[in-house]
Design a protein that fits this description.
- The structure is a single chain.
- The protein has 465 residues and is α/β, with parallel strands linked by helices.
- Helix content is 52%, strand content 10%.
- It has a four-stranded parallel β-sheet, with helices on both faces.
């Protein structure tokens, strides 16, 4: 993982994106140069600029279609289909912009078609090589876990479950004065008398040690041995940092208050607030213009099938636990909570109408919250605001739940694009762990990444209920 603008990005994803941008630009540029030699005139500087414009457009569309998501990197057929669709859409976007301006882009027409076709062929070959060799042992770092407790045992689960972490080998677990072992005996790495961690590092070619020791007193944490490894260039990572890096979560079970106090992140300041507020207004204003016809049709559909009211109001908890009112398109029957008790929405919820199911699937029911963003109650990106009834319950059952109220809630967020719709306390716990990551690391870069992922959620219907 590479930390880019406070957000962890898989090295392979970043490398592939940069490589494919260069392939796209070079292919279109060379095709245009060859075409120019045949009588199609354009300066080299202009061709280079236009080639990068077309490459950038296609790269953006490829990102929106999930070509650089972990799931697509691991699925060859899905990736190939999305590459072809992205090429067509990206070319269409540049063609449209060209026609709206002056229609004189030299890379369009036959040069662009030839260049894009050549780029797709090269990218398809490059992806085939990536799929073939991405799991090769020579490319996987060797990792040693110090500790055998319940938290340390989660490392194996993470490595198996997270695509980005599968490119590492967990050599084993070194006991550190624990009374009970939560890992299988075959996974334990024993040490002979006089052997240190540095001995194991050299024996197994270890590049990183993950420290998963809960009790660091009474010799539980071998500081001198870890220092020796660190001075020899071995990476030493606390378990909480490992979870944050590999899962995009801050795991509640491995969290303590001192880590929150002393770790990097939680940056707040006037400049950040101004940038985020400006971004909120611009993004929400643009979305409002684009979705105005959709909202009008939705209102008509609700009136025609369910009658009035079109909207329903709910109280939600925002920054600093301040309660505010949101409006959403009505997707449930009027008597959905006739007994006055707040309930989680569940799959196949019989309170949801046919129109309501569609607008929930496409996330259209959330669109009226744009006005909350304009008023400043919400941000465009942030933790989802919950109802006061749920907040009281969740704050009592889940540690650090109130941390998510240190910033403005959002229409979309890191938890929304990374986890399915929450309908229980356990779901809320899982989503909180993503929210904690966002609160700690939120930047304009991460907001943009979340918006790109939100497009995929809407296109492919992930997480809707």
């Amino acid at each position: 993982m590479i930390r880019l603008f406070s957000h962890y990005v898989p090295r392979n994803t970043l490398f592939i994106a940069v490589l494919e941008a260069l392939i796209l630009a070079a292919s279109v540029y060379l095709a245009a140069i060859v075409w120019a030699d045949l009588g199609y005139t354009a300066t080299a500087d202009r061709l280079a600029l236009e080639s990068f414009m077309l490459a950038g457009s296609m790269l953006l569309v490829m990102s929106l279609l999930g070509v650089y998501g972990q799931s697509s990197i691991e699925g060859w057929k899905t990736t190939l289909i999305r590459l072809i669709v992205a090429a067509a859409l990206g070319f269409g976007v540049v063609d449209f912009l060209s026609r709206e301006l002056d229609g004189t882009l030299a890379v369009l027409g036959m040069p662009g078609v030839i260049g894009v076709a050549g780029a797709l062929a090269v990218i398809s070959l490059e992806r085939a090589v990536v799929f073939r060799w991405k799991g090769a042992k020579v490319f996987r770092p060797q990792v040693l876990v110090l500790g055998t407790g319940s938290r340390a045992a989660r490392v194996d689960e993470i490595v198996q479950a997270q695509p980005s972490a599968r490119r590492m080998d967990v050599v084993g677990f070194v006991p550190a004065n624990e009374e009970s072992h939560y890992v299988p005996a075959r996974r334990l790495v024993g040490r002979e008398a006089g052997e240190t961690l540095w001995t194991l590092v050299r024996r197994y070619g270890i590049s990183e040690i993950i420290v998963g020791v809960r009790d660091r007193r009474n010799g539980g944490l071998p500081v001198e041995e870890l220092l020796e490894c660190r001075l020899h260039g071995v990476r030493v990572t606390y378990l909480t940092d490992f979870f944050e890096r590999e899962t995009g979560q801050i795991r509640v079970e491995s969290l303590n208050t001192s880590w929150l106090i002393f770790s990097e992140g939680f940056r707040r300041g006037s400049l950040r607030n101004i940038v985020k507020r400006t971004f909120d207004i611009l993004a929400s204003g643009g979305l409002l213009l684009v979705t105005a016809p959709i909202m009008l049709l939705t209102a008509i559909a609700i009136l025609a099938t369910m009658g009035s009211p079109v909207f329903y109001k709910q109280q939600r908890v925002g920054e600093g636990r301040r309660v505010f009112t949101i409006r959403k398109f009505r997707s449930m029957k009027n008597d959905a909570e006739k007994d006055g008790k707040a309930r989680w929405a569940t799959s196949d919820d019989d309170r949801i109408t046919r129109v309501g199911r569609v607008i929930r699937l496409l996330r259209i029911d959330e669109l009226p919250q744009i006005f909350n963003v304009f008023r400043g109650d919400m941000s465009f990106v942030g933790p989802r605001p919950e109802r006061p009834e749920f907040v009281r319950e969740l704050a009592e059952e889940i540690p650090y739940y109130d941390v998510r109220h240190s910033i403005k809630p959002g229409i979309t967020g890191w938890a929304q694009v990374r986890y399915a719709y929450g309908a229980s306390v356990e779901d809320a716990r899982q989503k909180l762990q993503y929210d904690l990551y966002y609160v700690k690391n939120h930047t304009l870069f991460l907001d943009i990444m979340i918006l790109l992922d939100t497009v995929q959620v809407v296109l492919f219907g992930k997480g809707a209920r």
